Amino acid sequence: MTPLPSRLTWKSALPGHVNVEVWSVVKVTIDRPGCISCENCWTLCPDIFEQNPDDGLSEVAEQYRVDGNPAEGEVPEDFADCTVEAADSCPVTVIFVEE
Ligand code: SF4
Fold first, then answer.
1. pLDDT one-digit tens code per residue, 70-81
2. What's the whole-model pTM score?
3. Which atom of ligand 1 is nearest to the CA of 39?
């Protein structure tokens, strides 16, 4: 599959029309109770995954969370490959990626 660019921009040639920018993202979900803290995800993709300091389980980095939920995130396309790689490396398959 050909990766999408991180930002798609459409510019109208008609005067008075507004330019539209659409950022492509992938959705990621972590079934946190099933995490065994193997460290794979935050080692492979540290911009997106991190270890929660209280329970030691994986969580989505704060800036990419949906509604502040540490188990759910929206990832910019630039990090899609490492997010998928992290999901593939999870030994208990608790990371789900929706492209
Ligand atoms: S790869 Fe899976 S088991 Fe390992 S830390 Fe990440 S979510 Fe937890």
1. 999 999 999 999
2. 0.80
3. 5
